[in-house]
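Researcher: Structure prediction, please.
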Amino acid sequence: MFTRTLGKCLLPALLTICGGAMADSSPPGAAEAASGDGWAFKLTPSYYSTTHETAATDLNLRANNGPHAMWLGYYRRGDEFEQTRTGYEYTAQYSLVQVVPSLQLASHGFAGGSINLRIGDSVYGLLGFGRTNMKDYYNLNFDPNDSIVVGLGTRLLPQSDLSVFSVIDDRLHTGQTVTHLVWRLTPGSGERWTVDLSSKRGRATPDDSVVSGQAVALTYDHKAVFIRLAVDRKVNFSNDDQTRLALGLRF
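Model: Predicted structure follows.
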């Protein structure tokens, strides 16, 4: 299965969603950046098991240096489809406003870009806008691509960052909308739990039937390593369900 730019390169900027090819959304608006002491890297191999489809793998390397981030990734599904991608994003912080433009290129002629904003501090608003050239692109983030993002978040809860946001197709007439509830809990130094609950409704193309489904993704970070497990019903607005497993190493 691939998407004809119905996949998301919309939120990569703000929390390594597409840029890091992390395969699951995080609340947009808090870009992962290095401490300023030099380059920091994150290597993420992932495995995708999908009903009625050949299993797939993905390998992504992301590099951060201060406000700059770059990535290189390779996706492969047996002998059916493969794609190499690269991209860049810049995080600009202006008092209570964070602005993150990004650009992504991939084989098969794909190009996409986005601009995303987080406005506020302990309570914040989320806005995003993304566009592609509508070439073939496998959606590793499972939200609409040519879309807008609207949402709210707060860090008022103890050791937590809680956000709710929707990613909405505003170009391809599919009616695709994915709404996320993301809770990040940091109980101690070097440790973090992330829970992403999402609900989707829409069509793969304007001529397809409407589908709806839910997904849950759980991520645990411990110092330099992390593990993520996700179960996604009607993945990419298809009739298939998908289970995803990702391991990661920061260095």
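Model: Residues 12-250 form a domain with the Porin fold (CATH 2.40.160.40).
Researcher: Thanks, that helps.
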